[in-house]
């Protein structure tokens, strides 16, 4: 019986205490659409990276760029996938109440985590930053005062790919008291992943290689990360938590693949991009308005990457004769592909002071410092053509300080505070034309932009909850913000000294007669506000109903545009963009059924979006623009344990979102259109089943989960070829735990059916006659062994 009770405690119905309202509450008592999992549950679900949790959270998907090396969250269709790290994401991510200010830094390996809380809808009242779409909050395990304990977890496995690709992960933690008043915890993680995307270069090579080491297999990475935590309790009413963390990752060039596409042109304007049949040789086709397509006249053909081709040299190939392998395998031929070419590095210090002033009031101070650096690369055509590559670098520091008071009476709960954010961000982005490339010829060049953005944000916030009757309560919240930004940008052409650097040296004056470099400086100071009004009704202990209106805001900012995008988007006028405002109308319920053995939670919402900061990608660059939008949808989450040892979870989310009046490009003569947001599948569903039983003196468990995602666009122009198909991912595992969970061994298969699930893509139909696409990793077999002590 003791073994079965232990297994049940690790099941999906385990009680989760969360702090979504800045105080500890049972998940079912929080009148907010929240999905939360414990660290043990995430481990059982195979969650390894920060973004993996999206698969189990209704209404949550992923977006980003750089072939999954930069992955961000998309919540209820709210996303922003600009690949310049000068921006902040509309879905905030926190670690131990410390805001992760750099969008790229939302991608990190998870280890020694206590729980995750995913809050949907605007969260600006109680959380300090930009959470118009929602937020994801990870909380790490804290030091233990009661006993010395820890664990060691080793996992090894292999991808089902054309080349032998293995991944090894080692994770360990040690915690315990250092004195009567002091406890510590140290946690480490190391992972090493071989490349899984086979590169057959120099097959079909069009020009000489861009440099030594070119043509490497892609998808490899190596990460080492650590966290040291100390908890000091000088008295029974005062606790000070200190954590220090550091992580380093080396990665290959981004693992993109190429697929052939063709542009549809009408009166000289690109109006659509479609996937190409195997016998296609035209560079572009002329739409005739009746659904058909005619050969475009010879003098109207779009030039092939600037080389003036009349037609494709190989049927079904790109402008240069490269025929990409089918998406059914993980192989390609790419010239600009290097092992260990990019890196990310992050460090952080977090100090939390919690002081109980009396039985009804407490004070909390959270001081957080983070530093983040990266330099990542992708080949813009993912093909054996020495054309151009993209690089994205950032060097940023952020500091946040939060001070808050919270308290309660017999009929009310309240919290009030002050929040300060400072970000010093320098980004280096651009296009690299290596030696012997089409773009640069014999002279290597970087077509780059250097941008510096300094942000100071100050806010006062408060939320008050009052019991109108024993079963009905009202909540009101408000945050006032003063946002100050200083921006400095330079866009032009640099000499290129290496395939592993970007924007080095000085600008080349008036390169190609473009009048570059161009410089821009500006400062802004804005007063912004968010607010919340809500009613909650609890007719009994097992049912909570809520409805309210919530206003979220994300401050305006600036684009950092490479030379061609700067000129094509209108110059300086395209650089600043306004704040976005999301007004959410939402109602929901949380029900506990069957004597606590079933949880059923649901919500419906309508979003009125003003000046949504949308990312429009045209040519080889993108620009953030403001556009109105609307979104309505519903979510449902069921977790039940109908018999001893069996856990079942079903979640689903549906929404219909529209971004209004989007032009095909700046200056397009065609009228704007209404489109769907990017990385936003309208329907998602997840099912998970886990059954545990006594076996071999311990607990055996078998588990499987299925995750379905509807099709979704990766380009705001919504061209036909800029869309990933729907997919169904299946995972399975078998595990055994010894008594008291001292030993755990696991056999697992991720992506059991070897599904090709799209991650990120770019439309490059007029540059190479191709689109650049990346897929989730192939089927992965693994065995794990964990020892807890």
TrEMBL record:
Pfam families: Plug, TonB_dep_Rec_b-barrel. Its main location: membrane. Residues 310-752 form the TonB-dependent receptor-like beta-barrel domain. Residues 27-134 form the TonB-dependent receptor plug domain. PROSITE patterns: TONB_DEPENDENT_REC_3. It is a multi-pass membrane protein. GO terms for cellular component: cell outer membrane. It is found in: Cell outer membrane. Keywords: Cell outer membrane, Ion transport, Iron, Iron transport, Membrane, Receptor, TonB box, Transmembrane, Transmembrane beta strand, Transport. One of its GO terms (biological process) is iron ion transport. Belongs to the TonB-dependent receptor family. This is TonB-dependent receptor. The lineage of its organism: Bacteria, Pseudomonadati, Pseudomonadota, Gammaproteobacteria, Cellvibrionales.
């Amino acid at each position: 019986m003791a073994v079965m009770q232990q297994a049940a405690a690790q099941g999906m119905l385990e009680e989760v205490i969360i702090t979504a309202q800045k105080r500890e509450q049972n998940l079912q008592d929080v009148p907010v659409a929240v999905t939360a999992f414990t660290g043990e549950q995430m481990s059982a679900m195979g969650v390894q990276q920060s973004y993996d949790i999206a698969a189990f959270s209704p209404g949550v998907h992923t977006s980003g760029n750089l072939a999954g090396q930069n992955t961000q969250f998309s919540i209820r269709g709210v996303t922003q996938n600009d690949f310049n790290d000068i921006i902040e994401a509309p879905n905030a991510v926190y670690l131990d109440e410390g805001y992760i200010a750099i969008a790229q830094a939302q991608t990190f390996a998870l280890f020694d985590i206590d729980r995750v809380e995913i809050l949907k809808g605007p969260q600006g009242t109680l959380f300090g930053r930009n959470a118009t779409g929602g937020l994801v909050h990870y909380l790490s395990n804290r030091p233990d005062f009661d006993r010395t304990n820890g664990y060691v977890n080793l996992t090894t496995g292999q991808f089902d790919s054309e080349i032998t690709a293995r991944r090894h992960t080692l994770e360990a933690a040690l915690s315990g008291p250092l004195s009567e008043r002091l406890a510590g915890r140290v946690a480490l993680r190391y992972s090493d992943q071989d490349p899984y995307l086979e590169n057959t270069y120099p097959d079909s090579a069009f020009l000489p290689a861009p440099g030594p080491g070119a043509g490497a297999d892609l998808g490899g990475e190596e990460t080492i990360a650590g966290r040291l935590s100390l908890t000091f309790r000088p008295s029974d009413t005062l606790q000070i938590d200190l954590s220090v963390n550091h992580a380093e990752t080396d990665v290959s060039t981004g693992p993109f693949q190429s697929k052939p596409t063709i542009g549809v042109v009408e009166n000289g304007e690109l109006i659509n991009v479609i996937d190409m049949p195997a016998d296609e040789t035209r560079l572009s086709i002329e739409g005739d308005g009746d659904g058909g397509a005619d050969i475009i006249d010879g003098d109207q053909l779009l030039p092939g990457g600037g080389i003036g081709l009349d037609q494709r040299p190989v049927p079904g190939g790109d402008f240069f004769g490269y025929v990409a392998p089918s998406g059914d395998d993980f192989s390609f031929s790419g010239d600009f592909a290097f092992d260990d070419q990019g890196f990310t590095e992050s460090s952080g210090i977090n100090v939390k002071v919690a002081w109980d002033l009396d039985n009804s009031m407490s004070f909390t101070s959270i001081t957080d410092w983070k530093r983040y650096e990266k330099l990542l690369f992708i080949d813009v055509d993912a093909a054996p053509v020495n054309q151009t590559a993209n690089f994205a670098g950032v060097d940023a520091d952020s500091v946040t300080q939060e001070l808050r008071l919270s308290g309660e009476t017999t009929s009310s709960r309240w919290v009030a505070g002050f929040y300060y954010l400072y970000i010093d961000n320098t980004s280096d982005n651009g296009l690299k034309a290596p030696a012997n490339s089409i773009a640069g010829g014999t002279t290597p060049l970087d077509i780059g932009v250097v941008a510096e953005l300094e942000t100071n944000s100050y806010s006062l916030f408060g939320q008050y909850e009052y019991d109108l009757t024993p079963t009905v309560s009202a909540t009101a919240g408000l945050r006032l913000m003063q946002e100050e930004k200083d921006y400095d940008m330079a866009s032009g052409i640099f000499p290129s000294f290496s395939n592993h650097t970007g924007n080095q040296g000085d600008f080349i004056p008036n390169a190609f007669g473009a009048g570059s470099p161009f410089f821009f400086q500006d400062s802004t100071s804005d007063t912004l506000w968010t607010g919340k009004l809500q009613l909650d009704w609890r007719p009994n202990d097992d049912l909570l109903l809520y409805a309210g209106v919530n206003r979220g805001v994300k401050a305006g900012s600036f684009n950092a545009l490479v030379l061609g995008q700067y000129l094509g988007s209108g110059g300086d006028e395209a650089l600043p963009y306004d704040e976005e405002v999301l007004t959410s109308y939402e109602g929901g319920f949380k029900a506990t059924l069957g004597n606590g053995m079933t949880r059923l939670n649901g919500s419906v919402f309508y979003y009125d979006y003003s000046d949504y900061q949308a990312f429009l990608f045209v040519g080889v660059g993108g620009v953030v623009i403001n556009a109105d939008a609307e979104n309505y949808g519903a979510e449902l989450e069921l977790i039940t344990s109908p018999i001893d040892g069996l856990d079942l979870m079903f979640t689903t989310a549906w929404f219909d979102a529209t971004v209004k009046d989007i032009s095909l490009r700046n200056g397009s003569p065609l009228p704007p259109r209404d489109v769907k947001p990017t990385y936003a599948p309208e329907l998602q569903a997840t099912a998970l089943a886990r059954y545990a039983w006594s076996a071999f003196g311990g607990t055996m468990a078998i588990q499987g989960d299925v995750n379905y995602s509807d099709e979704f666009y990766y380009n705001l122009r919504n061209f036909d070829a800029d869309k990933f198909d729907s997919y169904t991912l299946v995972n399975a595992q078998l595990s055994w735990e010894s008594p008291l969970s001292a030993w755990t061994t696991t056999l697992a298969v991720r992506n059991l059916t070897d599904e090709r699930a799209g991650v990120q893509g770019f439309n490059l139909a007029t540059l190479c006659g191709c689109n650049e696409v990346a897929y989730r990793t192939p089927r992965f077999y693994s065995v794990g062994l964990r020892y807890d002590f």
